[in-house]
Amino acid sequence: MRTFLALASLLAYCASLVSATALTYKLDANERACFFTNVQHKGTKVAFYFAVQSGGSFDVDYSVTGPNERVILDGTKERQGDFVFTANDPGEYRFCFNNEMSTFAEKMVDFEIAVENESRAQLPSKQGANPEQTSVLEESLLKLSAQLSTISRNQKYFRTRENRNFSTVKSTEKRILNFSLMEVGLMVTMAGLQVFIVRFFFQGARKGYV
């Protein structure tokens, strides 16, 4: 029972160290959208992940700006990104996506902003507890947390690839349909032209006999 309470306390404490926001945003053409997060302590780790799920060439411009309008990260025409940086200044951080390069294509962007403290959780101690056992349990939970984070990132990656492949298939189907319609139209035009030429020859031949 005490072990269960210790695990529950540790998990609750670990959860309190990380605040994350995961969203899917529809970025219209010629739109610039910004999202904000507040960092309270210097040296806090900030993780930033994004992936363009659909729209255009699956690319977008992005930028991350600190409290003093100092640009921390930026990029143009990127399909996805996964970054971790240390916030050297407490305050408000701005994460922006820019789709002003597109005149009509809207983009669907998945992104996540996570703010976590570098301090590590400590298991509550009890009388007669072995420090080595406590340390092993703590390390196991931290490894488990890292593995879960890796699984989550892999799921996002495969979801992004699935969406892009599905969009490619739809685009290919549309091109095949358009090509087929053009081919049918060309065949009908050629058939009509052949009929017209044959009739023209027969009419000329009749006039020659007359």
From TrEMBL:
SUPFAM superfamilies from the xrefs?
Supernatant protein factor (SPF), C-terminal domain
Q: Does the keyword ATP-binding apply?
A: no
Membrane-spanning parts:
179-202
Q: What GO CC annotations are associated with the protein?
A: endomembrane system; membrane
Question: Which UniProt keywords are given for this protein, alphabetically ordered?
Answer: Membrane, Signal, Transmembrane, Transmembrane helix
Identify the residues that the record assigns to the GOLD domain, covering every copy: 32-115
**Topology in the membrane?**
Single-pass membrane protein; Single-pass type I membrane protein
Q: Where in the cell is it found?
A: Endomembrane system; Membrane
Signal peptide boundaries: 1-20
Q: Which InterPro entries match?
A: Emp24-like, GOLD_dom, GOLD_dom_sf
PROSITE patterns according to UniProt: GOLD (PS50866)
Please give the family membership noted in the entry.
Belongs to the EMP24/GP25L family.
Q: What's the protein name?
A: GOLD domain-containing protein
Q: Which organism is it from?
A: Lentithecium fluviatile CBS 122367
